[in-house]
Amino acid sequence: LREKSGDLKKRLHERFCRKITNELGLEGIRALRTLSPVLYVKTQGENPELDCVCDSLATGIQPPRIQELLPDLERMGYIRRRGNYVSVVPPLFAARLVEELAATHDQAMRRLFHALGKSSRSRFLERMVTVDLPESSAFWDFVFGDNGPLQNEGQRPDAQGLIECLARAVPARTAKFLEGKLRAQPDAQWLA
Q: What is the DSSP track for 129-162?
């Protein structure tokens, strides 16, 4: 199923990028690529995330320009708005944009993960569930690594939500990680 969705994802990506570039130029693609890693990005209201996402990813487009492009991208069907939040759609297209970022801007994806707050980070990981990254990718190496967020935040009470999301995104890697933790710390609260 993932192989078939990968081919469809690639074809959709190429078609949508042509359409967006023809109508809005490369800035339309940059805006969508910037917004794609977080399932819903808060763009307005108290504590918007758009500045954080732009600063972390450094894709060459600034928040004011993204705000200007949002109505056109929404009209074209590539943005869904829910109150103060926007999401890149369709999900297969958004996932492909994230895959490109992960392949070409690995450090930026790490910066974004660290810069996001708890709820934003959950929405980031929800998007990563839809992304086809190999379990041995640099991003997952970071997440599961010795200095990654699981090592640094794994004992926090909200770590279970992180583990549940990771189990859907990279099940074998998550199981291996938990097995190692349980062997090293049999009375740890990883599965509590």
A: TTS---TTSHHHHHHHSTTSHHHHHTTSTTHHHH
Cβ burial, residue 22 (10 Å; 0-12/13-18/19+): exposed
Choose among 120, 121, 104, 118: nearest CA to 57. Answer: 104
Task: Report the first-to-last Cα separation within the chain, whole angstroms.
Answer: 33
- Among the ranges given (68-77, 88-97, 132-141), the one the predictor scored with the smallest mean pLDDT: 132-141
Give the pLDDT confidence of 138-147 residue by residue, as tens digits: 999 998 888 8
Could you report the per-residue pLDDT of 152-169, keeping only the tens digit for each?
Answer: 655 554 567 788 888 998
Instruction: Choose among 96, 99, 72, 100: nearest CA to 86.
Output: 72
Closest CA to 101 of 118, 73, 122, 124: 124
Give the mean pLDDT of 102-119.
91
| Structure token digits, residue 169 | 């995104």
Query: Which pTM does this prediction carry?
Result: 0.87
Beta strands in the chain (DSSP E): 41-42, 79-82, 85-88
Q: In a 3-state reduction of DSSP, which class is residue 167?
A: helix
